Structures are given as C-alpha cells and as structure tokens.
Amino acid sequence: MTEVQSVVPAGAAAADADASARFDKVAARALEVGLRRVTVLAWRDLDDPEAGGSELHAHQLATIWAGGGLDVTLRTSATPGLPAVTQRDGYRVVRRAGRIGVFPRSILGTLLPPGARPDGLMEVWHGIPFYAPVWARCPLVSFVHHVHADTWKILLPPAMARVGAMLELKVAPPLYRKTRFVTPSNSTRDDVVKMLRADPALVTVAPNGVHPRFSPGGERSADPLVVAVGRLVPVKRFGMLIDALARVRERVPTLRALIVGDGFTRPKLEAKAAAAGAGAWLEMPGHLSDDELLDVYRRAWVLASTSRREGWNMTITEAAACGTPAVATNIVGHRDTVAHDVSGLLASPGDDFVGALTRLLEDDALRRRLGQGAVERARAFRWEATAATTLEALVEEAEARRAR
C-alpha cells in the first residue's frame, strides 16, 4: 500500500515562534546575570564516528546558545583526523585527549588560564561525570540523558563494569547532592532522584527537540517497511530486533527492513542477519545524511526500537514528526517519547513486541491513526524550548549564587 503524506501540520510555525521567543527572553536574562562565556563538557564530539543522540543534543544547545549572544565553548575528546580546535555553527570546539584523558584535560582547559574561565558550565553526564562540583567555581548544571545503572555490564568487561558502576552510583552522588540536574524525560528524572539520590527540587526536565526538517511529505514504501536508527552498540539490542523481524515476516511475507547506523557490533549483526536468512529483505546501509534519513523516515511504515535503556530516543520523535508511528520497548525514556496507543505502541521484548509490530503493519486504520497522533505529539518538541529550559536552569543557579 502506498500512502501519500500530508503537508507540514498547521500550528508548527506557531510552535517554532513561541519557542524562539521564549529562548530570546532566557538568553537576555543569562547576559544580564553575567553568563557571557559558557563551557560545555562532553565525552564525544558531533563529528566523532561514534557520535549519537547525546552529541547531537550538545551541538543543538551550543548552536542555539551561541545564536542568542553567548560565547560557547564545547570541550570534548580528540577525533582522529580532525583539528584540535575549530568553529562550528557559532561556537568553539576544543578536542583534546582520548576517551579517558578527556576528563582531566577538559578540567585543566576550563580552569586555565584564569582570565578565560567560563561564567557558567554545563557538563554532560555520560555514565562517568566530570565531577564538576568538586572543582568548578561558577554556576553549574549537569545534564543526565540516562543513568547507565545495569547497562555497565553489557558495555564493558566485568572488572571495568564494576568500576564504572561504582563511580556513577557510589562515588558521584554524595558530591552532587547540591547540584542542579537537567534530564530529557520524567522517567530519567525519576532515575536521577532514585539512583543518584538527587534532590527532586533540583532536577529539571527539558525534553529533546525535533529539527524542523523532519516533517510529513513524500510517499510511503509500497512494501511494509520497518526502520530502526541508532548506533550499533549492545544497549540498542539490534540483535533482538533482527529476531523479532524474522518472526514478523512469517506473518507479513512482503516485509522489508532497514537498520540505519554504524558501530562495533556491525559484524555480529550482519552474521546474525545472514543466519536468519534476512539478506534479501534486511539492509544495513550505515550512516546516512540528513536528507537520506528524512527520506527513510517518510517511507517507513513503522519505526522500531528494542533499546534496553534510553534517556529519550530522538529517532522516535524524528520519525513521529514525519508521521511514522513507533513500536518500542517499554523502558525508561521510551515511556516519554511514545504515547502508548496515541503515537505508537510500547511492548515488552519477545512475543509482545512481535505482536505489536505485526498488528501495526497489518492494521492500516490503526497505523494511520497512530501516525497522525505521532505528528501531533512531535509538534510539542522544539530545540529552542530545550535550549531555553536548560539555560534557564543555569541562569537560576547564577541568580542563586549571586543572592548568596
């Protein structure tokens, strides 16, 4: 079945204007309280081959903040083949040291020379934080996309996984008890309060935005097409998705699928797909350009995610903005991006997930209803709103510090 998509939904332009106006007010407040130079500390840069949603998030905020008149510097780890210092979309990028060395190197770069120290700081908590409360002498917010918790054991060898969990869940929380946190979702906020023992009054939720390029248009694939997008890493559980797709194809024999992205588990996933006899109907094209990804979202019938843990999962709301509903595992993060039976379906791994995916592919009326619900839901998420809420948390920290 071929579905012709509608035009950009009414009200999207108004939502953009409202978000932009709100950000302008917050940026003016930031400058008034002296937040002129702001540094962002992150583990990886947007141009890193392993970059994902966290890196895109930091880039979007840095770009919008710079556009609001702030002098923004992003400090992150080195990327082979790229310069140590560069400019991108109005902000400065400093890439130095490796995956471990980035922590002390970024701290030193932020503190020295004294005359160049930032007026405000945002650290991106990527499992192990930069422990900024110990050394930072300026207003600070810590952005936590998700608490790694039990995912350490699937990311690292056992000994290293225990160290990572200890640094995140045991060492860091006492040092961050007075720190302002920002998270992308209410479910992540709950994890931050419970697992990191944060003060609920100090945790702000700033949902991730959706770029305006993601909008309805074009035509659906003639054959049922399921798309999944993300880094090919264990936490995404793409192997589980391949198993589920093979079972769905027994019911939907014309099914086709795309797994978009790259990562170190690609050889294992390709071998699994071959063993499942999926070579003729499952493609893994690697990284796609923005225009190519937009086309994939618009052609897809369903966006699928089998992730074990997410803070938000931008691919779901990007696809939603294109009118594509999702079937996603019922986990932290997904419960915020997917409104069950409104913009998609939440399901447990195994039979429940296979059943939900099959149902959505076979039921045209349900898919159309959830697709429209997805478009409506995606309207609420704008990067300017994300940038405004996060910067506002930093402004409030600056105002509180001034009052003290």
Structure write-up:
- 44% of the residues lie in helices and 16% in strands.
- The chain has helices at 12-32, 53-67, 102-111, 132-135, 152-155, 158-175, 186-195, 238-251, 266-275, 290-299, 314-321, 334-337, 351-362, 364-378, 383-403, and strands spanning 37-41, 71-76, 85-88, 91-95, 120-125, 140-144, 180-183, 203-205, 225-229, 256-260, 282-286, 302-305, 326-329, 344-347.
- It has an eight-stranded mixed beta sheet, with helices on both faces. Strands 11-10-9-12-13-14 form a six-stranded parallel beta sheet, sandwiched between helices.
- The radius of gyration is 21 Å and the shape is globular.
- The termini are far apart.
- Mean pLDDT is 92; it is low at 1-9.
SSE blueprint:
Blueprint: H1 12-32, E1 37-41, H2 53-67, E2 71-76, E3 85-88, E4 91-95, H3 102-111, E5 120-125, H4 132-135, E6 140-144, H5 152-155, H6 158-175, E7 180-183, H7 186-195, E8 203-205, E9 225-229, H8 238-251, E10 256-260, H9 266-275, E11 282-286, H10 290-299, E12 302-305, H11 314-321, E13 326-329, H12 334-337, E14 344-347, H13 351-362, H14 364-378, H15 383-403
Parallel strand pairs: 1-2, 1-5, 2-4, 5-6, 6-7, 7-8, 9-10, 9-12, 10-11, 12-13, 13-14
Antiparallel strand pairs: 3-4
Query: Uncertain runs with pLDDT below 50, 5 residues or more?
Result: 1-9
Shape: globular
Write out the strand line-up for the largest beta sheet, numbering strands in chain order: 3-4-2-1-5-6-7-8
Order of secondary-structure elements: HEHEEEHEHEHHEHEEHEHEHEHEHEHHH
Which structural class matches the secondary elements? alpha/beta
What is the rounded distance between the termini?
64 Å
Rg: 21 Å
**For the residues shown, what is the average pLDDT?**
92
- Biggest beta sheet summary: 8 strands, mixed
Please tally the helical runs, counting DSSP H or I stretches of 4 or more residues.
15
Helical content (DSSP H or I, runs of 4+):
40-55%
Q: What portion of the residues fall into strands of 2 or more residues?
A: 15-25%
| Total strands | 14
